[in-house]
Design goal:
Oligomer: single chain
Largest sheet: 4 strands, mixed
Number of strands: 12
Structural class: alpha+beta
Number of domains: 2
Shape: globular
Order of helices and strands: HHEEEEHEEEEEEEE
Length: 208
C-alpha cells in the first residue's frame, strides 16, 4: 500500500523534498552563525591596560601630586624638561617612569603631563616641565619625608597641581611630624635622608 502511494506521487515532488530539506538546513546554519557572530560583537569590551596615573592629594601644606599613592617631588637642580639626577641620586630619588598610558586624575592636569628620555632607557614623567621623582625614604602612601631635603646639592620639593613647588612643611605625613625646616621626622627622631653628594648634580638650569 505504501509503495503504491509513493508511486502515485509526481516525480517533480519527489525531487523537491530533498532540495527543500537542504535549503532549510542551510538557512538554519546561517541563522546560527549570525547569532553567534552577533553575540561576540555585543560582548563586553576589554579593559584597557593600566598605566601611570598622576593625581592630586590633599596635604597640610597644600595639595600635592602623587603617583601610585606615593608623593612625587621636583628637584631644584633640574632644568626644564631636563633631569640632572642620575647614578646615586637616582637611587635615592627614583624617577617616576611612564608605563602604559599616562593620565592625570583628581585635580592634576593632563595638559601639564609629558615625558623625557632617561639615559638608561625608558621615559620619565614630567609635570609642567619638571621631571618627577619618588623619595626612597617614603615607605608608604602619603608620606612626605623628602620635603625640603637638600641632598645632592639642591632642594627637593613637593609639586602642586599648578606645577609650582610647595615650600611649606607637610605635617600630614603618616609616619611622623614636620620640623620648621620642612622635613618630616619619624617617631624615633631623625628623618630618613638621602645621602649627600658634592657631585650629585651637573651644570644646568635651576628651578630653585
Amino acid at each position: 500500500m505504501g509503495k503504491s502511494l509513493l508511486a502515485r506521487v509526481p516525480a517533480r515532488v519527489k525531487l523537491g523534498v530533498p532540495v527543500a530539506a537542504g535549503l532549510l538546513a542551510a538557512a538554519c546554519g546561517s541563522a546560527a552563525a549570525a547569532q553567534s557572530s552577533g553575540s561576540q560583537a555585543s560582548g563586553p569590551a576589554r579593559e584597557p591596560a593600566a598605566g601611570t596615573v598622576i593625581m592630586a592629594h590633599p596635604g597640610s601644606g597644600g595639595t600635592f601630586l602623587t603617583s601610585a599613592g606615593r608623593s612625587v617631588y621636583l628637584w631644584a637642580a633640574d632644568g626644564m624638561n631636563k633631569s640632572n639626577c642620575a647614578g646615586a641620586c637616582a637611587g635615592a630619588w627614583p624617577p617616576v617612569m611612564a608605563h602604559g598610558k599616562l593620565t592625570a586624575s583628581n585635580g592634576a592636569k593632563s595638559s601639564d603631563l609629558g615625558t623625557i628620555a632617561r639615559p638608561g632607557g625608558g621615559k620619565q614623567v614630567t609635570y609642567d616641565g619638571h621631571p618627577l621623582y619618588f623619595f626612597a625614604g617614603d615607605s608608604g602612601p602619603g608620606q612626605t619625608h623628602g620635603q625640603a631635603s637638600d641632598s645632592f646639592g639642591a632642594r627637593w620639593w613637593l609639586v602642586a597641581p599648578t606645577g609650582a613647588k610647595i615650600t611649606t612643611a607637610d605635617t600630614a605625613t603618616s609616619a611622623g611630624t614636620a620640623t620648621s625646616a620642612g622635613t618630616a621626622t619619624s617617631a624615633g627622631g631623625a628623618a630618613p635622608k638621602a645621602p649627600a653628594s658634592s657631585s650629585g648634580s651637573s651644570a644646568g638650569g635651576s628651578w630653585g
